[in-house]
Amino acid sequence: MLLPFESRRVNDRPHQSALDAIRARVEGILPQLAASAAEHDRTGEPPAANLARIADAGLLRLVIPRLAGGYGYGLSAASDVIGRIAEAEPASALILAMHYLQHGTIGTRGFSGQIIERIRKDAIMGLSLINALRVEPELGTPMRGGIPATVLKPAENGWRLSGHKIFSTGIPLLSWLAVWAATDEPQPRIGTALVRAASPGIRIVETWRHHGMRATASHDVIFQDVFIPAENVGELRPAHELPARDSQQAIWSSLLIAAVYDGIARSAQSWFLDFLRERVPANLGKPLATLPRFQEIAGEIATLLAINSRLIRTAAAEADAGEIPDPQEAGAIKVTVTGNAISAVEAALKATGNPGLSLNNPLERHYRDVLCGRVHSPQEDSVRIAAGRGALQDARS
User: Fold this and answer.
1) Do 325 and 332 contact (CB within 8 A), yes or no?
2) Whether 204 contacts 85, CB under 8 Å
3) Whether this model's pTM surpasses 0.85
4) Structure confidence at residue 347 as a pLDDT band (50, 70, 90)
5) 124 exposed, middle or buried (CB, 10 Å; 0-12, 13-18, 19+)?
6) At 56, is the secondary structure helix, strand, or coil?
7) How confident is the model at residue 162 (pLDDT cuts 50, 70, 90)?
8) What's the rounded Cα separation, in Å, for the pair 191 and 263?
9) All domains of the chain in start order, with CATH
10) What residues contact residue 368 under an 8 Å CB cut-off, 6+ apart?
């Protein structure tokens, strides 16, 4: 179900007709996206045509400020769009979610106004997607600490970038890469470089062979002496001066990722309810939907997803109003929503038995996809450990 577009514009209140127009665009492309989902899962081919449809519908500019030529919506609208697209075709939704995350928080990392304007203009003019590349083979996710092995070496009028990134969601379709790196100095400074994906010295290694979310094409990327203009590098700070996590980035990341996996669970719910209505065993003589046991399972799934809807909608509206939660709370929301989504799909799978596991039905694909919600940062163990430490400290005070 598409949640109401309740977010504010960056500069003023949205007009209802504008919200209705965006909703109509989203709804208009969903059938084509949904029709391609099984084939993208089977082949692992990135959904280029789907992202082109999304761009043609003007959705790449959703969270870009109005003064910059965008629509100026916030996290509520973004999470609504992502959740709805994820119901149809989740790989496109995750790639778009990463794009929204970068545009929604690009002003927090010390980039020049010139490069921010360039990236925004590219997204407004056509199919220009951006994502962050942070994870590395040795370091893993930076959420767990450490200094990146990807390095920036000083060069005339800029820097030279070299390194190896993994899990680069949507990389064949990206135009801009926000690359987390450290300077090649005795006391390294850390920051993000904005790199054109077509720059010389960038090589994609097709390593993505995953159980779920296959079409995200989250391959490895090798950077070899890639030139980066000085204005493309954000604020560089010593490791000890870096905040544990930026609150705005945390809530945008947590809610957009949560919306993807909640959307997958809603698609699974839709198939499951249809199955219960249509399945009439010969020995029963009426649909499974008439049995209390299956009604209870349907109610369990509906309850889990109702909680998700409330969490996403409330947290997004508060963030749009400037009431941004701390990163620990944002992480707890992500873990709860993705956990509920997994539980919902598991309940449907358990109830349907062999039909649910059949490759002829989409439920097994939804299950493989929704399980990937666990691996996105912040992960469950780090969220719970942080919450536990905080609770123990509060108990001592």
Assistant:
1) no
2) no
3) yes
4) very high
5) middle
6) helix
7) very high
8) 33
9) 16-128 (1.10.540.10), 131-241 (2.40.110.10), 247-396 (1.20.140.10)
10) 211, 212, 213
